[in-house]
Amino acid sequence: LLDMMVAEEESLKERLLKSIVLCRKELENLCKELQLGPFEAEEEGTMLQMEKSLRTRVEVLQKQKRDRKQELKALQEQDRDLCDILCTPLFSIDTGSVPSLEDLDCYRRHVASLNSLKEQRREEFVTNKRQIILLMEELDHTPDTSFERDVVCEEEEAFRLSQDNIVALQNLLQQLEARRALNEAVCAELRARIAMLWERLQIPQEERDSSAVH
């Protein structure tokens, strides 16, 4: 029985030594992947305590690795969606390795800036679209280009908020405003000529008033 107990303890000791070696190697790899300083294990305590401490540290670093990769994946999904709407290039990051904390922080700030840009362009688009629709109704203008139809008829969420589209939207608004200003100038000139002709022809005020509503 004593021999069996000794053999069992020797077997346990061998397993613990193997586990310690494997844990040290795994810790070394994880520290490199996570860009951390080299891990220094505490030599105090029993072999069993050392093995448990190393195994616990491995589990903690493995969780950090999973968390970083999951956050990277979530940021990439947001980045793709925003770049599709804004027509901007994707954020450059090495997806083959575990991102550092600095990389993730930089990526977060990049995605936040894209979200802010999206909201800014969306607000500008909605404001300009409302003015464009009012001007088209006032000018009795029917959208006759694909861009004008996209602006007026398509759902707001489907409109690509690229820099080129925002510039084209501003140009369209300026063109319509220029047409309205031209029409107003022509109308003012015609009204002045009508008023002058009324005076020359000595048209009664009642007849003038009935025509003035038009």
Number of helices: 6
Query: What is the share of helical residues?
Result: over 70%
Principal-axis shape equals rod-shaped
What is the N-to-C succession of helices and strands?
HHHHHH
User: Roughly what is the average pLDDT, rounded to an integer?
Assistant: 90
Give a short account of the largest sheet.
none
Percent of residues in β-strands: under 5%
Keywords: Coiled coil
Protein name: PRC1 regulator
Pfam families: MAP65_ASE1
Coiled coil: 159-193
Q: Care to describe what's here?
A:
The protein has 214 residues and is mainly alpha-helical. Helix content is 78%, strand content 0%. The protein contains 6 helices and no strands. Helix 1 packs parallel to helix 2 (47-86) and helix 3 (101-139) runs parallel beside helix 5. The longest helix is centred in the N-terminal third of the chain and has 40 residues, at 47-86. It is rod-shaped.
Brief rundown of the structure:
Keywords: Coiled coil. This protein has 214 residues and is mainly alpha-helical.
